[in-house]
Design a protein that fits this description.
CorA_TM1_TM2, seven-stranded mixed sheet, single chain, Beta Polymerase, domain 2, rod-shaped, 56% helix, 311 residues, MgTranspt_CorA/ZnTranspt_ZntB, 17% strand, alpha+beta, Methane Monooxygenase Hydroxylase, Chain G, domain 1
Length: 311
Amino acid sequence: MIEILKTYEDGTRQINSIEQGCWVVMTDPSATELLEISEACHIDIDHLRAPLDEEERSRIEVEDEYTLILVDIPTMEERNNKDRYVTIPLGIIVAKDVLVTVCLEETKVLKSFMDGRVRDFFTFKKTRFILQILYKNATVFLQYLRIIDRKSEEVERKLHISTQNSELIELLELEKSLVYFTTSLRANEVVLEKMLKIENIKQYPEDTELLEDVIVENKQAIEMANIYSGILSGTMDAFASVISNNQNIVMKFLTTVTMVMAIPTMVASFYGMNVKGIPGGESPYGFFIVIGVTFILTFLAAYIFRKKGLF
């Protein structure tokens, strides 16, 4: 899908054709759409395809007529009826007259610009627009990190009473998300530093404050991801030990009950033998004597196990 937007005096509107100072938004484009934009904007089609590869690394490539900036952005997907947080590439191509963005799916990072919810946003101010995208990207990372932190706390509360592995598996998925986020944020930081040194992208004094905000937000996201990852890793180790200990307690209890119940079973087996001379076999009170002795032995064994902390 291709959408073309341009900022006018009365706001940002969608237009039908590519004009100078416009923004071309490509969301999961088809081969025909890629070829169309490639020819219209004089961009190598391989560079347009690059953001459509989920494994593509963040980088900057400078060509004669345009510059490709590839960064990772956070997104949410559903697996097994549960939300999972991953990163996907976003391509920003700065051409002479237009700015092109390419992504596999519709994302929160660009949606706010398309809906006109970003202040001081102009499609023709390409450098500022790029910094605004990177700033929005860092804030979305922070939002998802806070959500991951809240979800991990919910799982921790369940783990206090759980002996199953499902909660640990959910924590593992959250930890994987944090690893993805940390790796992507570090790569984005490198891209940001390189971008500022590229002469093809002009720097303006009025963008200095925004640039500082982008750097601060990105670093804060990296620090939060590292902190949450460390906490989550320690929590997983602790609760893995707790679950293992809970299972050991259950098994110990069941083993002790089995040993105690083996006493009346063993006595009944002995007296169930069809042989002569069994003690109490001739007594009219033999049955009650055997039952009484069995109960005494059983309670004595249970008392001993109780004293040893096995019950």
